[in-house]
Write a structure and sequence with these properties.
The chain is α+β, with helices and mostly antiparallel strands. Helices cover about 40% and strands about 30% of the residues. The protein contains two helices and three strands; from the N terminus they run αβββα. It has helices at about 5-15, 55-75; strands spanning about 20-30, 35-45, 45-55. A three-stranded antiparallel sheet has the order 1-2-3, covered by helices on one side. Strand 1 (about 20-30) and strand 2 form a beta hairpin. The longest helix has 20 residues, at about 55-75.
Length: about 80
């Protein structure tokens, strides 16, 4: 469930603790039309929180959000 809905979970974390806007930035689109790979970054202002790749833009955003959640959680434990 965490990975499947990472974007929602990350959005809730950001709204609770930060004033900046969360955005997803498409960094790269590679491969032929029938087999594309998208790479997306989850960014908070100028700061990149996570990066993910997938066969769809949505999948790459979910992976980026998942990485961002893990990074924010690790920061909270330090």
């Amino acid at each position: 469930k965490l990975f499947y809905d990472s974007k929602t979970i990350l959005q809730e974390m950001i709204q609770k603790d930060y004033k900046e806007q969360l955005q997803y930035v498409l960094l790269e689109e590679t491969g032929p039309d029938h087999c594309k790979v998208f790479t997306t970054a989850a960014c908070l202002g100028e700061r990149e929180l996570g990066r993910g790749s997938g066969k769809t833009k949505k999948a790459s955003e979910q992976k980026a959000a998942y990485e961002a959640i893990q990074m924010l959680q690790n920061e909270g434990t330090k």
